[in-house]
Amino acid sequence: MAWIKRSWTPHEADEWTKEDWIAIVLSPLSFILITFGLAMSLFLLPAGFVMLLIGIVVTVIMFWVIDPKLDVLSEDYERKQRAYLEELERIQRWEEEK
Amino acid sequence: MVHFTGLDYFWVIVYILLTIGTGILFYRLGKRSGSDFFLAGRGLPWWLPATSNFATHTATDTPMWFSGFVYKAGLYGIWGSLFAGWCAISAWVSTRIFRRSLAGTQAEWQTIRFGGLPGELMRGWIAGWQVVFNMLCAGWVGIAMGNVCQWAFGWPPWWGLVLFSVICCVYAMTSGYWGVIIADVQQGITMFLVCILVSIWAVMAVGSPGAIVDKIQAMGHAEMLNPFRTTGFATGDYPLLWLITMIAVPFLGGFGMATHFDWFVEAQRIQSAATVKAAAYSIWWGAAAIIVRNSIWAVAVLAFFVIHPEITKESEYQLAWFRMGFEYFPSGLVGFFFAGILAIHFSTISGILNLGSMYATRDLYHHYINPGATERQVIWVGRFMTVVVMLGSFFFGLMIGENVTRWLFFTLWLMIAGTWLPNILQVIWWRFNGWAYLSSWIANLGICWLVVWVLPAYGLMPQLKDFQQFWLLMALVACVYIPVTFLTRPDDMERLVKMYVQTRPIGFWGPVRREAERRGLLTRVLEIELRAERESRKE
User: d(Cα B335, Cα B332) in Å, to the nearest integer?
Assistant: First the structure.
C-alpha cells in the first residue's frame, strides 16, 4: 500500500498527515465495533461475531498505519526533552530568577 | 447479609496485606524526588499507565451506574458508559500534544498554553478546584463502598468509607505514584479476573448465554438485545439526540482535553509514560480494556435481569453486579470476589488521593507558596496533602450518602457541558486566549447551577433531560466566551510560538506557524534533525 507512508523522517513525522487522520477515524470505529461486537458475541448473537471481527481488523489496520510514524516522532522528541524539562523547572521555580 | 468462611477471610486479609506491602516495597523509589512521588520519574513503559488507566477508571460506583444503565435499557445502556471513548481520538491527538508539553498537571498546562495573568489565574483556579474535586471524587467512590458494605455486611456506611480509604492512604502516602501505579497493576489484573468470573457464574446461574437471550425474548423484551434502536429524534425512551450526544461528547472531546472529568487523571498517566508513543499506547489500550470490561459486565447484569426482572427501584437494581457475585459465588470464592471489589476500590481511591495531593503540592505549594522548595520538602508536603485530601473525602462522602448517581450526573454536567468546547478550542485554535478560557469556566459554574437546579426548582424553566441540558449549557456558555475571545487581545505571540514548536498542536495555528517559520524555528529544528539523521547513518 504505497498510499500509506511507512518510512518517516523526524521532520515529516512532526506534521499532521493523512496517516493521523486515518487513525483518528478508525479508532472510534474500532472502539464501537469491539464494545458492541464483544457484548453481542458473548450472547452468541451472529451479528456480534461479525462486528467483533471487523473491529479487530480495523484495529490492526489502525496500528499498522500509525505505529511507524509514532516511532519516529517519539524517538525524535526524546532527544529534545531534557531542554524542555529544564524550561519547565524554570517556570516552576520562577522566584530563583530574581 | 453475606457470611464469610475461613477461606473467604484468608483472601481478603492476604489481599489487603499485598496492597499495603506494595507501598512499603516502593517507598525508596517514591521518595527520590517530587517527579518520582507524582510521576514515577516519567519513565514508565506503556503497559503500566495503561493498566493503571483501566484500574483507576473501574471504581466502586462504576458497576453500580453501569448496572443501572444496562438493567434498564439492555445493551443500549452500554452507550451511557462510553465515556472512555474520548481516549480513541485523544491517544493520537491530545495525548501526543499534552505529552510533548511535559506539563505535570492540567493546571501547569495553563502556564504553558496561555501564560501571563490569565494563565496564572487559571493555574491557581484549576489547582484549587482539583484539590476539592478530588476530595469529592474520593468521597463519592468511598461512600459507594460504604453502601456496598452496608448491603453485604450490615455495617454503617461510614465504616466502609473510612476503613478502606485509610488503607489506601497508607500506601499512597508512603510511596506516592510509584506505589499507586504498581498496586494498580495487580489490582487491574485482579479486578479483570473477577469481572470474568462473575459473568461466568451469572451465565451458569441462568443456564447458558442462549438461555439468557431466550428468556429476555420470552419476557417480551427482545429490544434489550439491540444496542442501536431509537424512538425518534428527541422523543421517547431512546432518542437519537441522546445517542448522538453519547458519541459526540467523548469521541470529539479527544481532539482537546474535553472530557476532563477523566482527563485530569489521565494527564498524570500520560506524563508518567517514558515516551510520546508510550503515552499514546497507554491511553488507547487502557481505554480498550475499559470497553472490553463493559461488554463482560453486560452479561452479568442481563443475567441478573433475567433472574430478577421485577425490580423497579434504581438503588436496588444498581447492585446487580455486586449481587451476582455475592449471591452466586460458592463459599470460599466470595472472599475472592470481595478482594476484587477491594481492588476496584483501592485503585481508584489511591489514584485520586495522589492526584489531589499533586495539584495541592506542585501547583499551589511549589509554584505559589514556596517556589524554592527542596525535593524533600515537596515530598513531605505531598504526603501531608494526601492525608488532607482523604479527610476532605470523608466530609463529602457523608454528605452524598445514598445519592451516588445523582451526584455523579450533576458533577459531570458541572464539569463538562459549558467547558467542553473551550477545552477543545484551547488545543486547536491559536486565537482562543486565556481570558476566554477563564470566562468559560466562570460562566459554566454559574449557568449550570441555574439550568440544572435553580430555574427548574422555581418553575422558570422545565426540567430538561440530561442531553438537552448538555447542549443548552454549551450554547449559553459560548455566548460568554466567544465575545470575550474577540474583545481581548490574543495571547503573547512569543509564548504561542514557543508552545507551538514544542507541542505541535493540531488545528488552526496558521499565524503562529508562520511566525515560527519566519523566525527560522521550524527550519532550525529541521536542520538539527537532518544533521542527527546523517550522523546516525554514518554510525
Answer: 6
Report how far residue B498's alpha carbon sits from residue B509's, in angstroms, rounded to the nearest whole number: 13
Q: Are B128 and B62 in contact (CB under 8 A)?
A: no
Give the single-character DSSP code of B81: G
- B297 to chain A: closest CA residue: A39
Measured between CA atoms, the residue of chain B closest to residue A90 is B371
What CATH number matches the domain at B6-29+50-417, 3.40.1190.20, 1.20.1730.10, 3.30.160.620, 1.10.3370.10? 1.20.1730.10
A and B: number of Cβ contacts within 8 A: 134
Residue percentage of chain A with pLDDT more than 90: 65
How far apart are alpha carbons B96 and B271 in whole angstroms? 10
When mean pLDDT is compared across A21-30, B410-419, B488-497, the lowest value belongs to B410-419
Report the pLDDT averaged over residues B100-106: 92
- Interface test with chain B among A91, A93, A94, A98, by most B beta carbons within 10 Å: A91
Q: Burial-class residue B10 by CB neighbours within 10 Å (0-12, 13-18, 19+).
A: middle
Least confident piece of the model among A37-41, B101-105, B503-507, B525-529: B525-529
Q: How far is CA B343 from CA B188, B448, B482, B488, in A?
A: 7, 34, 44, 49
Assigned C-alpha cell, B355: 492526584
pLDDT of residue B534: 66
Considering only CB atoms, which chain A residues are within 8 Å of B299? 39, 42-43
In chain B, where are the structural domains located? Answer: 6-29+50-417
Residue B40, C-beta contacts closer than 8 angstroms, at least 6 positions apart = B29, B48, B177, B178, B181, B272
**Is residue B82 a contact partner of residue B314, using CB atoms and an 8 Å limit?**
no
Q: Tell me B507's DSSP state.
A: S
pTM: 0.92
Q: Which of A45-59, B16-30, B48-62 has the lowest mean pLDDT?
A: B16-30
